[in-house]
Amino acid sequence: MPTLTGGCHCGNLQLTLEIRRPPDQVPVRACACSFCRAHGARTVTDPGGQVRLRAREPAELGRYQFGQRTAEFLVCRRCGVYVAAVMSATDGSLRATVNINALAEGARFSRDASEVDYSGESAAERLARRAAGWTPAQWDAATDQPAG
User: Fold this and answer.
1) Nearest 5°: phi and psi at 97?
2) CA–CA distances in Å: residue 95 to residues 11, 108, 109
3) Is pTM, for the whole model, over 0.85?
4) Intervals of the chain under pLDDT 70
5) Which CATH class is domain 3-139?
6) What's the rounded Cα separation, in Å, for the pair 110 and 30?
7) For the chain, which terminus, N or C, has the lower number of CB atoms within 10 Å?
């Protein structure tokens, strides 16, 4: 299982992404929402993978929500980099989508990003899609941040 690491520019937010396929075989998405467009985000998920998140200084972790408020976008308050979005599934698990621009080896995801527009989804549809397709995630024990 390929393991990729990354985080924000200043190193406060860190992540590890484990995926089942080589990065060049993983579909990449470019969400049409105003937040993702403003950040130039290109995201990936793998429901069979794992994301581990850590904030060296939890007070510098920004959690931004907008629209239906069904996910939290994790942004470093120091350097402004968006690294991932997380949500709590109905079963209590944490799910994430990762911005590959925040990965040290993000260039290994060589597929062109497919543009996606989820604006027509209800909150329930959005949560169900993410629960099924986003990557299981967990916070590093050193990060005093509750899920979602």
Assistant:
1) -120, 140
2) 22, 23, 20
3) yes
4) 141-148
5) mainly beta
6) 13
7) N
